[in-house]
Amino acid sequence: MLTHDEAKARLNAVGQGHLLNFYPVLDESQRRGLLSQIESLDLDALPSLVEQYVKNKPVFTLPPDLGPAPYYPRHEKDPAKPWDRAAVEKAGEALLRAGKVAAFVVAGGQGSRLGFEGPKGCFPAGPVTGKSLFEIFADNIAGAQRRYGAVVPWYIMTSPLNHEATVEFFKKHRFFGLGHNDVMFFPQGVLPSLDAATGDVLMTSRHEIATNPDGHGGSIKALKVSGALDDMRRRGVQHISYFQVDNPLVRVIDPAFIGLHAAAKDSSGEMSSKMIPKAYPEEKMGVFCASRGKVEVIEYSDLPASLQQERLADGSLRFIAGSIAIHMMSVEFVERLASDPKFSLPYHRAEKKVPCIDPRTGEPAPAWGNNGVKLERFVFDALALCRASIVYETDRAEEFAPIKNATGVDSVETSRAMQSARAARWFEACGVDVPRTPTGEPDCVLELSARTATSASELMIGGLTLPPRIERGMRLAL
Ligand code: UTP
Questions:
Q1: Whose C-alpha lies nearest to ligand 1, atom 17?
Q2: Contact of 158 with 185, CB cutoff 8 Å
Q3: Cα dihedral 125, 129, 130, 133 sign
Q4: Which tens digit of pLDDT belongs to each residue from 424-472?
Q5: Which residue owns the Cα nearest ligand 1 atom 1?
Q6: Which residues in the chain are classed under CATH 3.90.550.10?
Q7: What is the DSSP string of 41-75?
Q8: CATH 3.90.550.10 for the 43-404 domain, yes or no
Q9: What is the pTM for the complete model shown?
């Protein structure tokens, strides 16, 4: 391990000597902890990160040939790009039956907007049962395993900040009935959080450096370093179904998407994406674009208003394809990127409130606005590294109800309402009479587990005896 003098020399060389200000007053174990944290930092990279992302802000330049990314429309008979749904689903199902598909959730985020104590995946999301997000995903996986008669191993990326709590939660809930050996947890990397005014590395206490997880883009490296890719290879897994921890409506296993990704003529089978049409031009979503023959996501803050608002002759938005952070990736693609010593994804900078101490006094620093700069990598930047990549349209009401905020837009309230509304539509498609309010919302609260069905047609043929009608105000979970 690094000695104090070595650490001091290395820190002074990069202008971060303050990290040892309180070393003399620390006890032995705090000293060891601090030195090991310092050792894990990529100190040589720090000065240029501070220069590029704190002292300056990177300027985004729009590619001159930027256009909207083509996509497979939700309705396969859409003349814009017709496709053979039956054949595609068959291809996806064949991969599932052969055990070649894994589920992968990125759950290393800090969920600061939600303000929930504990890993976000433990948040009670189910509208009737209060099931956690993790349990809702486990239901998806258990349902798929039963339907396709094969194991769907589940990889869960945590961060050093929530790893233990996540694993404990699964143990407490007996892995929600999934095989213990078929669920693997691994933490992603972290980066030091920087003082937004000076670029100094922040400290949360006299012996702890403030760090933040290195973004969902850190998953590419973490899959490799953790041994998850090796585990996939051992199992014969070829494709990874990637999703975020905050969307209880996600179809964790979607045969049509898997099939398109793996078998469509214009897909390299390396990395594919799902999109939903943006609801309005200013909606805060990244947009799938195309440039130099590659698909890429442009963040909403980088897409000029004139392009956001541009419309086609039929009135629809030209840049319509909003990213919902659902991807398929091949094991081979991730392996290729992560094994390349030159591989790296660009950093994105976010200004955030980071609780910290004053490095001169060691006392908690007074909280003011966004005092810190966090650097993160985004997984969608890997799209540019694919040979070819496809985008597939899906229906927002069916597949996207994220829980990001404590209240308001994208909150638990809106998500639960959307989960109940989807269940209501599926019940109605099966002939069940669902009471509705004068404004059309279900006048009851419904929840359907993915163990029961993952679509209205599955519910119909699932052999369940459904009630002929739901009473007003009723709460029903199936
Ligand atoms: P968000 O962008 O919503 O970030 O993450 P967050 O950290 O969870 O929440 P806020 O911004 O602090 O409120 C989108 C997805 O990416 C994962 C999150 O767990 C979530 O599933 N993520 C994000 C990671 O796995 N690691 C990260 O470093 C960041």
A1: 109
A2: yes
A3: negative
A4: 999 999 999 999 999 999 999 999 999 999 999 999 887 788 999 999 9
A5: 109
A6: 43-404
A7: S-GGGHHHHIIIIIIS-PPP---TT-EEPP-B-SS
A8: yes
A9: 0.96
